[in-house]
Structure formats: C-alpha cells, structure tokens
Design goal:
Layout (H helix, E strand, L loop, with lengths): L1 H24 L6 E3 L2 E2 L2 E5 L9 E5 L7 E5 L5 E5 L10 E2 L4 E2 L6 E2 L5 E3 L8 E6 L3 E5 L1
Parallel strand pairs: 1-4
Antiparallel strand pairs: 2-3, 3-12, 4-5, 5-6, 6-11, 7-8, 8-9, 9-10, 11-12
Length: about 140
C-alpha cells in the first residue's frame, strides 16, 4: 500500500509541475518604467534602463495597454503594444515571449504570432535613439 501511495503522490506532483511551468515563467520580472507621452512620443532616459536587461515595460496612464521596449541584438530598439490581437486582452512578458493568459496566444519579441488563436501580429513602434534618450514614436 505504501508503494501505491508513493506512485500516486509522485504522479500528482509531476502533473502539477507541468501545469505550473507557464505560470512560473510569467513570474520572471521585467522592469517597469512609468512614463508619460507628449506630442505622440514617449521619451525614455537611457539612465533609467536596467543594465544587462533587454526588456522593459513602459507604463503610460494615457494608454490602455503597456508597451514592451525591446533591445535588439544589434543594440537598436523597438516597442510593442502589449494588447493581444485576438480579443484585446493585456499581454504578459517573460524572458522568452509575450503571452495572453485569457486565450493562450503567444508572440515573439518582434511581435509575430507564435501560437493562435491570435492571427495578427502586434502593433510595433519605431524607437529613435539619441545620445541619452530613446524616443518611442506613437
């Protein structure tokens, strides 16, 4: 009887870990910067960016959804509107992708759909660099 109980408990634990994996991935912290838009642009002071961090969430109270500021491999930047194109839900970001917890859509950091039900890519914004700032063109 002890062996059966051990096997049953072990199987339940493994199943729980498989279910919890996507949830735990979403817990990886992406720094959040609270910034305001002015003249259809958001200015990010480079000094506020965390070193060695390729992703930053830009929160603007005048926008319905956050932006994800992405540093590309070549050192350039772009920003993605974190609104699921399937059913207008907020997206979450982890170190690998953006995902919609409502219906399961997944996007890469270029804004391209990796997993449906979403079929349309995310809105992407141009980011212009200057000496000490990044300017997100809305």
């Amino acid at each position: 009887m002890q062996r059966r109980e051990f096997i049953r408990t072990s199987c339940l634990l493994c199943a729980g870990l498989l279910i919890a994996q996507p949830i735990l991935q979403s817990c990886s912290t992406v720094p959040v910067l609270k910034l305001q838009a002015k003249n259809a642009q958001i200015i990010v002071d480079k000094a506020t960016l965390k070193p060695n961090q390729k992703l930053h969430i830009i929160r603007n109270t005048k926008m319905d959804f956050d932006l994800l500021l992405v540093e590309n491999a070549d050192g350039s930047y772009h920003a993605l509107y974190m609104q699921c194109t399937h059913y207008s839900q907020p997206l979450a970001a982890n170190s690998k992708q953006l995902f919609c917890s409502a219906h399961g859509s997944v996007f890469n950091f270029n804004g391209e759909v990796l997993k449906s039900p979403a079929e349309k890519n995310l809105t992407k914004y141009i980011v212009e660099p200057s000496a000490n700032q990044l300017i997100i063109k809305l």
